[in-house]
Amino acid sequence: MISMRTTKKTKEKVEYGDFQTPLPLAREVCALLSQCGCKPLSVLEPTCGAGNFLRAAHEQFGSIKRAVGVEINGEYVTSARRSIPDALNGGQLTIIKEDFFTVHWEEILGLLPDPLLIIGNPPWVTNAELGSLGSANLPLKSNFRNQAGIDAITGKSNFDISEWMLIRALDWIRGRQATLAMLCKTAVARKVLFNAWSTGQPLETSDIYQIDAMKFFGAAVDACLLVVRPSPYARSLDCRIHESPEENEPVAVLGYRNGQLVANVQAFERWAYLEGEELYRWRSGIKHDCAKVMEVREENGRYRNGLGELVELEAEYLYPMLKSADIFREDPPAPRRWMLVTQRFVGEDTCRIRDKAPKTWEYLVRHGALLDRRVSAIYRKRARFSIFGVGDYSFALWKVAISGLYKRLEFKMIGPSDGKPVVLDDTCYFIACRAKGEAQLLTELLNSEPARQFFSAVIFRDAKRPLTVAVLRRLDLLVVARELNLEHPLEKYLQLSAKSRIDLA
């Protein structure tokens, strides 16, 4: 079953999902598996909903001797029991009403003979969404991906429930003659593969078949069928990408190289020599989580905020700012907003604003309720009106920046505006530079053909943020400079940076 956001989303839709897999799609998936040589003796659907996958498997595979479906929603259990034949070629069919997270899976799996097919469509919803509803339909609380420190706090530990389920299902088939075939978000499929490859789980084959989620579910999301087969003897680190279940020939191959996922194995192997040390520290822009208060536009010496108010603020804490759209659309980007930057470094006492800029302090206090309601845990137990992602690097006069939200690989040089450094919001990534010439050189290197080819090989353009700090840090700019005969100028700036006491790194 699928659980998705809709304009009339209810608690029940999120928890249990009422976007059932259409029977034609279930039949198409089972026909594909049969063409690929799948002949299961047993079938398990861990979140079976109304049972369309079990029904399609019964129709397609005459080899089935035992089938089990598990479903938490009582209405779906009743529907599945009515719609699926009582017997599977003389075998046994069991539909169990139970919560995925409390089922004794070892007992069920022990009764299912190999070859085993685990098939289905687990809920497409995150643990944070379920938690916000007070749902108990969740795995035991844990730092799911073992994120450290601020990564866990700022949400990188948030995950799709289906991701947790699929990783669990892969553990079930370890060492067995089995096939795992699941509909899921394409991003979830990649995370599941990364987990398997990075933990050394041997997979013989992996395939992703793109699915038209709008056609089948009315959902604007990149979705796929993930098909994985384990093997104790072979270990493939590649996954073939197919445009649809009807296409046998892959259009690309993603893989696991140097401890990371790469979008195009062939292209990566051509440009892999560019991967190396991060010479310049990539940063995200300033995070404040309250644009209506913290971002303003100038009007005749006063400032209009996102609430429509025209207010007076001192210039002391105002900086020209750029957002992702500004960097993406303009060259050079031109600031049209100002950001109220309350701290020069994380943790700085904000009470000093009261003395240095009383109008700004009064403005913050007046809108304190909005700022106090910011939900991110990073603001807890910190000075009132705190921001995050701020440091000396935020105030560098020269920067090289790129939008984190758009798919075009184009880096822009950012210089001062109105005599002040331009700050970026947290949808942007940037390198802080000490001089205009340094920013020009880095912009040239990052926009060069070798750099573009490298990034194109490693990024997934269907991702919510195709380009991330982690991806940017993989490119060794010194190797790129050597490729373009610009090694000596870059080394000069690196030496100057090493001697500087200003912490822009």
Q: How would you portray this structure in words?
A:
With 505 residues, the chain is an alpha/beta fold. The protein is 33% helix and 20% strand. The protein is built from 21 helices and 20 strands. It has a 10-stranded mixed sheet, with helices on both faces. Strands 14-13-12-16-15-19 form a 6-stranded mixed sheet. The model is unreliable at 1-9, 127-138 and 147-155 (pLDDT under 50).
Offer a concise description of the structure:
With 505 residues, this protein is α/β, with parallel strands linked by helices. The strands form three sheets. A ten-stranded mixed beta sheet has the order 3-2-1-4-5-7-6-8-9-10, sandwiched between helices. A six-stranded mixed beta sheet has the order 14-13-12-16-15-19. The two termini are 47 Å apart.
Essential attributes:
globular, 505 residues, 21 helices, Rossmann fold, 20 strands, 6-stranded mixed β-sheet, alpha/beta
Distance between the termini: 47 Å
Structural domains: how many = 2
> Mean pLDDT, as a whole number?
88
Residue runs with pLDDT of under 50 for 5 or more positions? 1-9, 127-138, 147-155
Q: What is the CATH fold-level name of the largest domain?
A: Rossmann fold
CATH superfamily of the largest domain: Vaccinia Virus protein VP39
User: From the alpha-carbon coordinates, what is the Rg to the nearest angstrom?
Assistant: 27 Å
Structural class by SSE content: alpha/beta
Q: Provide the spatial order of strands within the biggest beta sheet.
A: 3-2-1-4-5-7-6-8-9-10
